[in-house]
Specification:
Layout: E1 12-16, H1 20-32, E2 36-40, H2 43-52, E3 57-61, E4 63-64, E5 67-68, H3 69-79, E6 84-89, H4 94-102, E7 107-110, H5 115-145, H6 156-168, E8 175-178, H7 185-194, E9 203-207, H8 213-221, H9 238-241, E10 246-250, H10 257-269, E11 271-272, E12 281-282, E13 286-291, H11 295-300, H12 306-312, E14 315-318, H13 326-344, E15 350-351, H14 353-361, H15 367-381, E16 386-387, H16 403-413, H17 416-430, H18 435-442, H19 446-455, H20 460-468
Helix pairs in contact: 2-3, 13-15, 17-18, 18-19
Length: about 475
Amino acid sequence: MYNFTANSSLTTILLVDDDDTFRSTIEILLKSHGYDVIIADGVIRAMQIFKERKIDLIITDLKMNDGTGLDLLAKAREAHAEIAVIIQTAYGSVRNAVEAMRQGAYDYITKPFKNEELLILIEKSLENKKIREELTVLREEIAWKYSFDNLVGISTALKQLKSLAARVASTDISILITGDSGTGKELLAKAIHFHSERRKKKFIPIDCTSIPANLMESEFFGHIKGSFTSAFTTRRGLFEEADGGTVFLDEIGDMPLPLQAKILRVLQESEIRPVGSSISKKIDVRILAATNRDLAELVKSGNFREDLFYRLNVLPIHIPPLRERIDDIAVLAEHFISQEKIRRNEGNLSISADAMERLVQHRWPGNVRELENTIKRAIALSHDGRITEKDIMFITSESASDPRQKEILNTAFGTLEDSLKERIEATLHATNWNLSKTAGILGIGRTTLWRKVKKFNIDRNQKILMNQN
């Protein structure tokens, strides 16, 4: 039996109908099931009530003396986009009721109807409203997570960068983000997407260095069944998945020339053609691109299309390396320590002045990503959560071969190889083998992670069995 009264006492329904007898009958029905019911005899009175009271659901007749249910729907949704609306209509007006659904009504019900039919529809519409409201909150939380304020720093260069990005986020202008590896190019791209009109659709990042060249076209644009040997089914590509949203092409300087021509077509014609198909599909995506290479030099050497370069480089945004943003180092270090406090649920993590000075003096070839990993490592090496100068160890391409540093780290954790293998195994297990999440936690690329898994012969099933024993 359907539970019509669950939580209904918290629900206020605005019932709008110019038929007094019918309105009274439905009012009695709804009140008998615990709903708070407010009645109105037309559109004008309904809008007055809507402005004065918090309404969860509107049940309105389609045709009334002073207007239509469509008029009320439009005005109500203008004031409150998530309001649930059910349209009552006679059989001959179903076409108008369908139009009401196109304009945002949850559903319609045809007179005469059974009481149970209306009650079920009310419950379903309220459940749908709750889901949409939760989705709105979730989107707001995601937008906050990827807000420009999360590009942490106080340097003039970073402030100017964030100001420029915020101003153009709401446009559809193509943006080319440049900067060294580890500076936060993808974080900036996400902030731009989640502050644009496209934030309700997908943000799809594509690492142009991690997809084999012979699979790129299929990954980007999809393929039809039988288009090549292993094409057993028709498959949508990443650009079609992002329709209405944003595609972020990371390290676009590494994209093969043949695919560059197809990306240019997407920008010019707003259409894609799946591999093996003779039919093009219209899509609506915004393209954000990033690179740590000099695209102008690649154009001169013939390794990057000049026309694509100018299409992408409508607005260039350069993220300076961390060594040029000395003012940001201490702020970022404190930020990462605060994040670790939350993650570990430890309130006593801190850093000494000498340790901070050592961070400020470092050149940071790995930029913000290197600083984050250095802080995590220092916390692991520290005693009682207090980071001192001796806890600061820099693992760069130069320092990795330093015998003194290797000896210190090996003493603390075993060999570097063993330590890395154990860290990867533990993180993979904690994320249930989510490679993207694991790579993010470890501060390495997904491709790099997969190579390490192969190198260390880390087996998923073996790890699970080890943890079960």
